Amino acid sequence: MSLTKSPPKKPHRVGPPASRRPRGRHAARAAGLFASLALLVLVLAVSLAFGARELSLGQAWSGLLDNTSEHYTVVHEMRLPRTLLGLMAGTALGLAGGVMQALTRNPLADPGLLGINAGSAAAVVTAISFFGITGFTGYVWFAFAGAAAVSVLVYTVGGGRGATPARLALAGAALNAALFSYVNAVMLLDTSSLDMMRFWTVGSLAGARPEIALRVVWFVLAGMFLALALARPLNALALGDDSAQALGARPRRARVGAMVTVTLLCGAATAACGPIVFVGLMVPHMVRALTGPDLRWMLPYCAVLAPVLLLGADVVGRLVVRPSELQVGIVTAVLGGPLFLYFVTRRKVVRA
Fold first, then answer.
1. How far apart are CA 334 and CA 192, in angstroms?
2. Mean pLDDT by 10-residue block, N- to C-terminus, for the chain (352 residues)?
């Protein structure tokens, strides 16, 4: 009888080889991104077609391309600037939310919830009321200054490098309330500026004009480029400063770049459309379920799906009370409020 042991049998492999899994995952993410782009194209077409005067998709297409069409004026003077502005503002807010959540490691971070949009709004209202500035070119710089100041203030009050998600959320909520109280007080005291500001302060695409869209696009493109360039450093930063430095990232430079990115994106979007909340919160959460935490995939998804949400909310606002309309900032707040409560409640349950 032989006492030698037979070699152990290799376990049967279930599923594809490990080397194929990343390739399959990348293919699935790429397919999802192309599907998201197709959805964005559809929403853009719907935004051109639906409103107080409803057009078919064929009529909207004819009005877009044929300057002799009876629908040319409606599409080019009313619908197209509004749609392009919604596209740029949605992209800006979605990217800003994704970058903020990565920077602060706070899944509840949002340009609206942390008071950055309110900082821009307060600065713009100050420019309109006290300095008589009414053009976009003039008050966009106030919007950038307000966004930058509140970004630094929230980060400092929240504890700086030792900030926790709860402290950042509380600091942002306090500043948000104080700044919007200031905005409302200025509007009540300055009745001459009230009509100009009252739609802007709830977040609206109704006042979109071609010149505003043309001026916003450069700031949004610059912020988009910075956000995508920061994807790898912010991925490394999520592992901690020491690990990030070991991987070749520079934590301080990444943080400064992220703050500049958020300031550019939020300042441009708020100056053009007013403070629109919850877009930067909802979209990164939805995208993270598809892509995971890898910002190299998450940020491009945010750039595509955030305008889908914003333009979809704008179309809903045009249709629900037609021939009047509901401002897009109100629609996103109605959609985002219950979602925010769900996220907060879920986090409490997990901690318990």
1. 30
2. 51 49 78 94 93 84 85 87 93 93 78 80 84 75 86 77 67 85 81 63 76 86 94 86 79 84 88 84 88 91 95 91 84 81 59 36
DSSP string, 111-157: TTTTTHHHHHHHHHHHHHHHS---SHHHHHHHHHHHHHHHHHHHHHH
DSSP string for 81-105: HHHHHHHHHHHHHHHHHHHHHHHHT
DSSP 205: S
Give the chain's radius of gyration (CA, Å).
23
Scanning the structure block, which residue is given the tokens 């991925």?
235
Please state, in angstroms and rounded to a whole number, the distance separating the CA atoms of residues 124 and 111.
16
Q: What letter does residue 50 receive in the DSSP assignment?
A: -
Strands (E), the chain: none
Q: Are 86 and 307 in contact (CB under 8 A)?
A: yes
Query: Would the CA dihedral through 29, 23, 18, 228 be positive or negative?
Result: negative
The answer to whether residues 111 and 280 touch, using CB atoms and an 8 Å cutoff, is yes
**8 A C-beta contact, residue 172 and residue 162:** no
Q: In the structure encoding, which two tokens stand for residue 180, read together? A: 């919007």
Q: Structure tokens of 259?
A: 């703050």
pLDDT number for residue 200: 64
pLDDT of residue 290: 87
C-alpha torsion 214→76→302→234, nearest 10 = -10
Exposed, middle or buried by CB within 10 Å (0-12, 13-18, 19+), for 252? exposed
Question: Exposed/middle/buried for 188, CB within 10 Å: 0-12, 13-18, 19+?
Answer: exposed
Report residue 155 as tokens. Answer: 């980060």
